[in-house]
Structures are given as structure tokens and as C-alpha cells.
Amino acid sequence: MNTLIAQLRHRLVVSCQAYPGEPMRSPDTMRRVALAAAHGGAAGIRAQGLADISAIRGAVDLPLIGLWKDGDDDVFITPTLEHALSVARAGAHIVALDGTARPRPDGRTLADTIAAVHQLTGALVMADCSTLAEGIDAAAAGADLVGTTLSGYTAYTSKQPGPDLDLVARLASSVDVPVVAEGRIHTPAHAAQALRAGAWTVVVGTAITHPSTITGWFAAAMASVAPTPTNI
Ligand SMILES: CC(=O)N[C@H](C=O)[C@@H](O)[C@H](O)[C@H](O)COP(=O)(O)O
């Protein structure tokens, strides 16, 4: 077992991402968010974009999962081999890439892409999948970890309000590589359920590192309470 993967066993990975146009979209801000997550007990960090990956790698001494979201195509998470090599060279220990069966913009297969990342960089590969079949195929294609990241984000999967724990459980009993529970893990209880379902590690993003969304959750819950004469 690779030591980085062993370090993540039953531990929390915090995804530190801000989206285009958002106030927190800056490598230095994400570096600080990652440091805060490390301070709070995160065992690993997931980060998007070469500048963020590089800034976080220089500051936080934890396993780093890197990705590069690019393009308007269906396949947008580290869509090509060139993206994957850049992510590894920016400092990611683990390159997260689209692990679905959809055609990739550079025409390479998932297996070729994974083999080239291994050969040329020595980084590990996490395949972001949306179904059981994709996870099984990604493991067979050489992925070091398979994640449920894309469940609910492909045209052929439906988005549940919470995490896809059923997919976590079915993957965990079907593949020999560690399963990463990721996507809509919004509470500590969800994270514990994901471990019970067989996840090796759990990635939490929005619920820890995206204040705009979290603020929206609180505001919506409060807006749904109609004022009464006693609380006006
Ligand atoms: C589908 C997609 O693009 N997922 C991205 C992958 O890196 C991120 O936007 C998510 O924040 C991440 O997966 C963590 O999930 P959540 O924020 O739900 O805890």
C-alpha cells in the first residue's frame, strides 16, 4: 500500500475551491483555507487549478489531491493528459481526473491517460466517477483510488440532496482500490455514514470551505419560517 494512501485511511480530506468570479478565488486565500483545514485536523487537501495547487503544496505538509477544471465539455475535471501532467508538476501527489467513460477531449482512453501519468510523473491517480460501472472500469484501468465525485453531475445520474452512499457501498464491495466518498457530504454524520458504507477516505468541500453556500443554507432555513406576532 502506498504510504500517502495509507495516511488517508478513515481520515478527512478537505476540498478547498473557489469558483470563477467569487471573492475567495485567489491562490493565497485557498492556501490559507487549506492551512485552516490542516489546523482543524484534515489529513489531506483537494485543490483546483495550478496556482492553488502550487501555493498549497508549498504551505501545507499533507497529501494533496489536485485537479484542473477546464472547458465547457462534459469532461471538465482534468480533461486531458496535458492537464493531468500539469497538475502533477504543480505539486499534486494525487491527480484527480474524470473517470467516466465519456470521450475525452484529447481522444485518449482513461487507461492510457493513467498509465502516462504514472510513467511520466510518479503521481497517483484518483478517478472521479458517477456510477458503479465507471468505478469498476476505472480501477481496471489502473486508477489508484476511485471517487464518487461525479454522481449527480453526469447527464445519466440523478443528483440526490445528500451524498450517494449507495454508490460508496457498492463500489467498496466491488473494487480492490480505496474508495473516496465525495460529493454533497454536508454534515459530520454524512462523513461517518460514508466510512460505515466502506469509504477509505471522505472528501468534504462546500460544507467546510464555501461560505457563500453555507450562508445560503442558513438564510433559506430562516426565510422558510414565517414570522408570527410573537417574533416580529
Ligand atoms: C462535481 C464537481 O465539479 N465537483 C468538484 C470536484 O472537485 C467540486 O466542485 C466539489 O466541491 C467537490 O467535489 C467536493 O464536493 P462538495 O463540495 O459537494 O463537498
- How many strands, which pairing sense, and closed or not: the largest β-sheet? 8 strands, parallel, barrel
CATH class category: Alpha Beta
Major β-sheet strand ordering: 1-2-3-4-5-6-7-8
What's the CATH H-level superfamily name?
Aldolase class I
Compressed to H and E, one letter per element, the order equals HEHEHEHEHEHEHEHEHH
Straight-line distance between termini: 60 Å
According to CATH, the fold-level topology is: TIM Barrel
How many E-type strands?
A: 8
CA-based gyration radius: 18 Å
Query: In percent, how much strand structure appears in the residues?
Result: 15-25%
Please give the oligomerization state of what you see: single chain
What CATH architecture label applies? Alpha-Beta Barrel
Estimate nothing, just give the exact number of structural domains. 1
Small-molecule components bound: N-acetylmannosamine-6-phosphate
Number of helices: 10
Family: Belongs to the NanE family.
Pathway: Amino-sugar metabolism; N-acetylneuraminate degradation; D-fructose 6-phosphate from N-acetylneuraminate: step 3/5
Enzyme class: isomerase
InterPro entries: Aldolase_TIM, NanE, RibuloseP-bd_barrel
